[in-house]
């Protein structure tokens, strides 16, 4: 098959994903106009729209190659480009004690959340997705971990859909808890950065307490995002390969995680032109939205609904656990 034939084969499915993505973007803009902010992010809207379309209509063989390409390759390229948004200077600005504390929180939260998921009856791969989504960075972590652990599209869609809804709830409730917990702007920023899923949601959750909370929350969140690389590498080493000998380390580490870490290193060494950072972030976001649309198009929402109660219970319990561990870190470090 020639490159032209290959592109022609992918075009229908990719175009369908693009149409779903543009619709999701338009709906998010309407949310901003109507409510002042987009309570449901474009990523979430894309996968929900894709699920709705898939439930009403099953895409045939003409569409499948492009949908599969968008769900895998475009997603992996998007994860690579995310590495350009992180630098060593940004990470070190939070202080080494808090930096170590964030790693400890993530390291404790993932296995504990996985255990909760299994206790709620979730399948192992789905429990991993919920645990990583809650403990690291929501949708992006779920999307990055899914190909490493071999998760099904139904599992990805279920975990993203329910953690997304919880993310909105957290943004609404967390500012109300600050006075009840006796948290000033600094500690509250740390709590928001450790518990809220997406960076835009961190901004929304911390804005009511002022600029200091926004700055600290954003820094903590970015450090938390950086944990995605080591976690995915660890999962690639721990995930069993049935019926075959374990491949060498060079094949166990996904190429897109190496690319993610490589771009983060280049950013830290100031080897990436500043003019490229904005466009790279935009392309990363666009590719991720396309991938979410593709994942949604592969899932019948009626299948997801059958596992809904267990996923919600596991996600809520996991999020509460993360909040308790995060508050413990704040008290131990005396952040103030």
TrEMBL record:
<feature type="transmembrane region" description="Helical">
    <location>
        <begin position="275"/>
        <end position="299"/>
    </location>
</feature>
<keyword id="KW-0812">Transmembrane</keyword>
<dbReference type="Pfam" id="PF03601">
    <property type="entry name" value="Cons_hypoth698"/>
</dbReference>
<comment type="similarity">
    <text>Belongs to the UPF0324 family.</text>
</comment>
<feature type="transmembrane region" description="Helical">
    <location>
        <begin position="311"/>
        <end position="333"/>
    </location>
</feature>
<dbReference type="InterPro" id="IPR018383">
    <property type="entry name" value="UPF0324_pro"/>
</dbReference>
<feature type="transmembrane region" description="Helical">
    <location>
        <begin position="98"/>
        <end position="116"/>
    </location>
</feature>
<keyword id="KW-1133">Transmembrane helix</keyword>
<feature type="transmembrane region" description="Helical">
    <location>
        <begin position="156"/>
        <end position="178"/>
    </location>
</feature>
<feature type="transmembrane region" description="Helical">
    <location>
        <begin position="252"/>
        <end position="269"/>
    </location>
</feature>
<feature type="transmembrane region" description="Helical">
    <location>
        <begin position="128"/>
        <end position="150"/>
    </location>
</feature>
<protein>
    <submittedName>
        <fullName>Sulfate exporter family transporter</fullName>
    </submittedName>
</protein>
<dbReference type="GO" id="GO:0005886">
    <property type="term" value="C:plasma membrane"/>
</dbReference>
<keyword id="KW-1003">Cell membrane</keyword>
<feature type="transmembrane region" description="Helical">
    <location>
        <begin position="69"/>
        <end position="92"/>
    </location>
</feature>
<feature type="transmembrane region" description="Helical">
    <location>
        <begin position="222"/>
        <end position="240"/>
    </location>
</feature>
<keyword id="KW-0472">Membrane</keyword>
<feature type="transmembrane region" description="Helical">
    <location>
        <begin position="38"/>
        <end position="57"/>
    </location>
</feature>
<feature type="transmembrane region" description="Helical">
    <location>
        <begin position="190"/>
        <end position="216"/>
    </location>
</feature>
């Amino acid at each position: 098959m020639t490159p032209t034939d290959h592109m022609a084969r992918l075009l229908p499915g990719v175009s369908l994903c693009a149409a779903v993505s543009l619709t999701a973007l338009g709906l998010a803009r309407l949310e901003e106009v109507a409510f002042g902010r987009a309570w449901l992010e474009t990523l979430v809207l894309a996968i929900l729209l894709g699920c709705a379309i898939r439930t009403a209509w099953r895409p045939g063989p003409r569409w499948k190659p492009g949908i599969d390409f968008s769900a895998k390759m475009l997603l992996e390229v998007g994860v690579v480009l995310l590495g350009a948004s992180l630098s060593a200077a940004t990470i070190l600005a939070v202080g080494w004690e808090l930096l170590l504390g964030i790693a400890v929180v993530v390291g404790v939260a993932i296995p504990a959340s996985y255990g909760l998921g299994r206790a709620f009856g979730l399948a192992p791969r789905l429990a991993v997705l919920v645990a990583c989504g809650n403990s690291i960075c929501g949708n992006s972590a779920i999307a990055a971990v899914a190909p490493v652990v071999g998760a099904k599209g139904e599992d990805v869609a279920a975990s993203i859909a329910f953690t997304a809804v919880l993310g909105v709830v957290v943004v609404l409730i967390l500012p109300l808890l600050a006075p009840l917990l006796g948290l000033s702007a600094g500690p509250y920023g740390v709590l928001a950065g450790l518990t809220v899923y997406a960076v835009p949601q961190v901004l929304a959750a911390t804005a009511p307490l002022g600029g200091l909370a926004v700055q600290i929350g954003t820094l903590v969140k970015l450090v938390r995002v950086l944990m995605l690389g080591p976690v995915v590498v660890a999962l690639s080493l721990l995930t069993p390969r049935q019926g075959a000998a374990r491949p060498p380390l060079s094949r166990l580490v996904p190429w897109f995680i190496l690319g993610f870490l490589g771009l983060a290193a280049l950013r830290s060494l100031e080897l990436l032109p500043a003019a490229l950072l904005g466009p790279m972030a935009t392309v990363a976001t666009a590719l991720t939205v396309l991938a979410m649309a593709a994942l949604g198009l592969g899932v019948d929402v009626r299948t997801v609904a059958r596992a809904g109660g267990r996923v919600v219970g596991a996600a809520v319990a996991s999020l509460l656990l993360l909040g308790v561990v995060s508050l413990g870190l704040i008290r131990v470090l005396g952040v103030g």
